[in-house]
Amino acid sequence: MLTLTQATRPPAPVPGALDLSGTAAQERLHLPQAASVRLRSNGFVHMASLAVTLNRKTGPQTDRQALAIQAVNAAYRAFPGLAGVDVAVFDAGKYLGFASRTSPPLLTLSVPAGDRRTFARALKAGTYPRVWPGAPSAVMPPQAPAPVISLLRPVWRGPAGQQAVALTFDDAPHPLYTPLLLDLLRRYDVPATFFVIGQNAERYPYFVQDMVRAGHQVGNHTYSHAPLTPLNEAEVRSELARTSRLLRRLTGQDITVFRPPGGGLSQTVLRAAAANQLRTVMWSHDAADYLNPDAQGLEAAFAGTLHPGQITLLHDKVESTVSALPAMIQEARARQYVFKTVDGLLNPEPARRLVGQQPGAATP
């Protein structure tokens, strides 16, 4: 892995190819079915995310695949230098916008540049792993469960004696920003924790698997991202259990941490989390990146609040977060901080699993 001193300066943009957005990008793509074209960079690599619409209300899977292949090839032709392309195929009669939760995609596909020449044949053969609905090879083999600490009450920070910080990203995965974040974290050799929404994981399972393969932790952020405090305990349990089952199936790992949407806490939520063997993890530094501040504001806020055991709340779908992340990492390392996952921060030494422990129980 690359360390901070090995990280290189961002490459110069490819002239006339990747500095487009909106209508200009769609015109360059020359794909009538393209409803949305987004191009973004993390300063090192460029990614494209396309939403395309299928005119048939219930087109066969081969039609969806053919359109996805056409879109990927069009993107690589139109925008030389891309590191990856993600495509979501939607029903044209139901498409309400890329981010709409009421119009889920019919198919999603991620094609890194290295797969550009081979993905179409594998997709048609049913063996390409970076597609949803997925190929049989999409499920990772089981791994040994990680130790967790007791399930008592919400965790807001790690031990004050640790010169360590945990970066956490809510609402993952996002088809455009998640790969940019993963690329940055790889370059700077930083582990992080992604709190994953179940619906997003279903639609983009390959990005969840990318997180785990890169050594990051995956946490439960509910299935639907609905507020939990209005729900009864059985409803909250069901929401969390559904998400943990999905994430275990995708990653082969136990899911040990949970964060409620919007930070909504109650004793009901805590009991439901404990019943699902989930530690409720909050934060000691809210970057408030969901308000779309500029990168300089995020960097200054992070530097001004940095403290031992810090848990920083970020989101994986904010452009300024991608822009600010390198400077945040540099600031922490200059002050002798190390980066850890949430489990790494809370479990500096192995701890035995406490099955079924409820909030308020005594620590052994």
TrEMBL record:
Stretches of the chain forming a coiled coil according to its record: none
Xref: Gene3D superfamilies: Glycoside hydrolase/deacetylase
Keyword Hydrolase among record annotations: yes
Pfam families: Polysacc_deac_1
Domain NodB homology: 163-340
Gene Ontology cellular component terms for the protein in this record: membrane
Top-rank lineage group of the source organism: Bacteria
A GO biological process held by the record: carbohydrate metabolic process
Key words of the record: Hydrolase, Metal-binding
GO molecular function: hydrolase activity, acting on carbon-nitrogen (but not peptide) bonds; metal ion binding
Record InterPro entries: Glyco_hydro/deAcase_b/a-brl, NODB_dom, Polysacc_deacetylase_ArnD
Name of the protein described by the UniProt record: Polysaccharide deacetylase family protein
Species of the source: Deinococcus arcticus
